[in-house]
Write a structure and sequence with these properties.
Rossmann fold, four-stranded parallel beta sheet, 2 helices, 26% helix
Length: 91
């Protein structure tokens, strides 16, 4: 399978990518701060790159990108977390 992972360079994303690669899947990482790592990712795309949002060649997309959950969960922090996870998935 061709698996895309947003937030792939984070703690959870890197682990999921490594497991997927071990299982023989191709992993395309999507990140705000792309760091190529051929041992973990087959391809790394920056969200800012033209065409980065083209997911047509993927069999699955795992969405892990978003506002950090670290820190105090104020009303504005909770809203930022929600927006970063929900609104980016809507066309």
């Amino acid at each position: 399978m061709n698996i895309g992972i947003t937030g792939a360079t984070g703690f959870v994303g890197r682990r999921i990518a490594a497991i997927a690669r071990q299982e023989g899947h191709q992993v395309i990482a999507f990140s705000r701060k792309p760091r190529p790592d051929p041992a973990v990712f087959d391809e790394v795309r920056a969200f800012a790159d033209p065409g980065a949002g083209d997911y047509s060649g993927l069999d699955a997309l795992i969405h892990l990108a978003g506002e950090s959950i670290a820190g105090l969960w104020t009303k504005s922090k909770k809203e930022a977390i929600r927006r970063s996870r929900v609104e980016v998935t809507q066309a």
